[in-house]
Structures are given as structure tokens and as C-alpha cells.
Amino acid sequence: MQQFPLAVIMERRRLQNRWVDEAWEAVGAVPAFDGAGAAAAPRQILAETDRDQWLVGGFALELFRDEADNYFLNMSSPVPKVFVMWRKEGEVALPVAVSASYGEAARWLDSGEQVDGVPMSREIADWVGDFVNTHYKPAPRKKVRRNDPLAQNRGGEGGRQ
Questions:
Q1: pTM for this prediction
Q2: Where are the residues of the annotated region Disordered (predicted)?
Q3: Count of structural domains, the chain
């Protein structure tokens, strides 16, 4: 298992909607080597009339060998992503977990969680790419036997000759 320290950027947009006042989503995941994103307490980094952004640190992107296939799928997509699972707690939405695995993100979604995919920074993509290059082993190709309808008619099995 390897870890990459991260901070997540959560954004709240104010809506002009009679049923919902606001919408939350994860909009970024940034490296947190410098300690700026190490604290788990949300810190407001943007305040505008129609939106706010909060930096929430204290996360580690972890990579596991048994998820190498899912990391490969992510890295081979046009825009690799960090998946952020988050929950609304009181007045704010807070990240709960991060992953680079398509499979893990799908499992979170299947269990009813809120999950956003945010573009992976170059530093994170390089790190995940190194892991994939080291641990991903493509499944061996299986020889497919196809039914040959003409083969049944050969050899006197009652077919046309």
C-alpha cells in the first residue's frame, strides 16, 4: 500500500430554485505535501456572492495492488480522475474518502453515496501511473472458440454435400 497526501476542494453554489438553495460538489484534489492541506478542518479559500470554496485536508490517496486493473482503467481514460466521496453534515458538505479506483468509486455509488470525479493533477497522475506501470498485469487473452455452422455439415453429419 502506498499513500499520497491530498486536500479536497469542495464548492457550494447558490441556486435560484424554489426547492433547493444550494448545490455542493467536489471540484478539486490537490497535493498536500507542504502541510497546507494537512489539517482536516475546512478552510474557506473563496467567497463570492454565488459560490464558496473550502479546502479540506487530511486525506491520503492509497493504492492497493488488487485494484491495479481499476487504476489502469482510470489512467487510460482521456481525463484521469480522483474520486471523492462526500456527505452533507449540517450546513457543509465534507469529503469522507478519496480514491483513484473506478471500481471503488462504482461501489460507493452503488451503496448510495455522493461521489464526484475531479481531474487528477500532474503530480498525482505521475504517481498513480508509476504504480500502474509496476503492478498492472493485463489478463491473459483467452482463445475464443467460435461455432462454425459449416463444420457441422462436414464429415457426413446429414448436411448438404
A1: 0.81
A2: 138-161
A3: 1
